[in-house]
Amino acid sequence: QVHVVESGGGSVQAGGSLTLSCVVSGYIYGNYYIGWFRQGKGNEREGVAAFKRGGESTLYADSVKGRFTVSHDNAVNTLYLLMTRLKPEDTARYYCAAGGYGLDWSEYKYRGQGTQVTVSS
Fold first, then answer.
1. Which residues of 78-98 are buried (b: 16+ CB within 10 A; e: fewer)?
2. d(CA 89, CA 41)
3. What secondary structure does DSSP assign to 13-27, as a single string?
4. How far is Cα 119 from Cα 121, in angstroms, rounded to an integer?
5. CA atoms of 85 and 1, how far apart (whole Å)
6. At 77, phi and psi to the nearest 5?
7. Which of 61, 51, 4, 59 is nearest to 31 (CA)?
C-alpha cells in the first residue's frame, strides 16, 4: 500500500523561503512522477512542480519557474519543494501526489492530505 505524507508548511513573509517535504512509502511500479500541487481559497487545484522517478527530469508551472526547485532524495524516498521569493499569491494548501504524469492532478493515483502555506505581505 502506498502512502504519501507532506510536511513543512507554515507562515512566512513575502520574499521569504520555505521547504516542503513529501515522503512516499510503498512500491510504485515503473517510472512515474511525484508532483506538488496547490489549491488556494476559491481557486482550482494547479500543478506546481513534478519530478520523474527513473528519468530524473523536472517540470514547473510558469508561475513558479525560477523561484521553486523540486528535488528528490532516493535514500529516504522524499521529494522536496524549495520555495523562494514567496509571494502572497503562493498562499495555498500544497499537496503531494505520486504515481502520475506531468502536472495534471487527475493523473495521479496516490495523494497526500496537504500542508498549508501562508505568505503575508
1. bbbbebeebeeebbbbbbbbb
2. 10
3. ETT--EEEEEEEES-
4. 7
5. 36
6. 50, 45
7. 51
Q: What is the mean pLDDT of residues 110-121?
A: 97
Tens of pLDDT, residues 27-70: 887 788 999 999 999 999 999 999 998 767 999 999 999 999 99
C-alpha triplet 10, 21, 114: angle, nearest 5°: 60
Q: Output the CA–CA distances (angstroms, integers) from residue 6 to 95, 117, 119, in the order listed.
A: 7, 12, 18
- Distance in angstroms (rounded) separating the CA atoms of residues 47 and 118: 18
How high is the pLDDT of residue 31? 81
Q: What angle do CA 78, 94, 87 make, to 5 degrees?
A: 115
Instruction: Assess contact for 39 and 19: CB atoms under 8 A.
Output: no
